[in-house]
Amino acid sequence: MSSEPLHDHVQHVVDQWARERPDLDASPILVIGRLHRVGLALTAELVRVYGAHGLGEGDFDVLATLRRGGPPYELTPSDLVDQTMVTSGAVTKRLDRLEAAGLVERRVSGGDRRSRIVALTPAGLELTDRAVPEHLANEARLLEPLTAAEQATLARLLGKLGASLGV
Predict the structure, then answer these.
(1) Quick one: which of 113, 124, 2 has its CA closest to 55?
(2) Which of 56, 72, 119, 123 lies at 20 to 30 Å from 157 by C-alpha?
(3) Using omega within 30 degrees of 0 as the cis cutoff, is the peptide bond preceding 72 cis?
(4) How many structural domains is the chain composed of?
(5) According to the model, what pLDDT value does residue 114 have?
(6) 156 found inside a domain
(7) Is residue 3 part of a domain?
(8) Cα torsion for 122, 125, 128, 133, to the nearest 10°?
(9) How far apart (Å, rounded) are the C-alpha atoms in residues 106 and 77?
(10) CATH code of residue 54
(11) pLDDT number for residue 6
């Protein structure tokens, strides 16, 4: 990989601040601005795979969360809220869509009639097992510009930053 400085839109913004307000340190924009722009670009690339399977980003998140938990591929709605890190209202909307599509089912918990369980249906399991390999291949493709060592370093640094922000 080249060690030349990166001249992109974010660098242009920092250069403008350096010219207009040399008393300010605008260097955090180099990281935060790039993270933000990369995040938006990655989301656009990721949702293409989800869309190819008739799913939105949130739908895929719920299905993948249920699938990666292993058999019997079920969780409570509150577990889904915790594991997907969205509000209960957002999970409810996702579950309504997925249930209407026949990909998940909601049923009464065996031990507590007040409690509900969300489970993948056979169709949901089959769709998830088709979509996840494509999703992972897409993520690998998106990371191809980085060496394995760079990916490991970036993962470690993003983990450290995320931990400091409680995410």
Answers:
(1) 124
(2) 56
(3) yes
(4) 1
(5) 74
(6) no
(7) no
(8) -120
(9) 9
(10) 1.10.10.10
(11) 67
Determine the residue type at 100: A
DSSP classification of residue 5: P
Q: What residues make up the domain containing 52?
A: 9-143
Which residues make beta-bridge pairs with 105? 119
Q: Strand pairing of 104-108 and 116-120?
A: antiparallel
Q: CA-CA distance, 167 to 160, in Å (whole number)? A: 10
As given in the structure block, the two tokens for residue 104 are 């998940």
64: its two tokens? 């993948």
Crossing angle between the packed helical segments 77-84 and 57-68, to the nearest 10 degrees:
110
pLDDT digit string, tens, across residues 67-90: 999 999 999 999 999 998 788 899
Single-letter amino acid, residue 46: L
119: three-class secondary structure by DSSP = strand
Residues near 50 by Cβ (< 8 Å), separated by ≥ 6? 56, 57, 59, 60, 131, 135
On whether the CB atoms of residues 136 and 64 are closer than 8 A, the answer is no
pLDDT tens sequence across 36-47: 999 999 999 999
* Distance (Å, whole) CA 112 – CA 121: 21
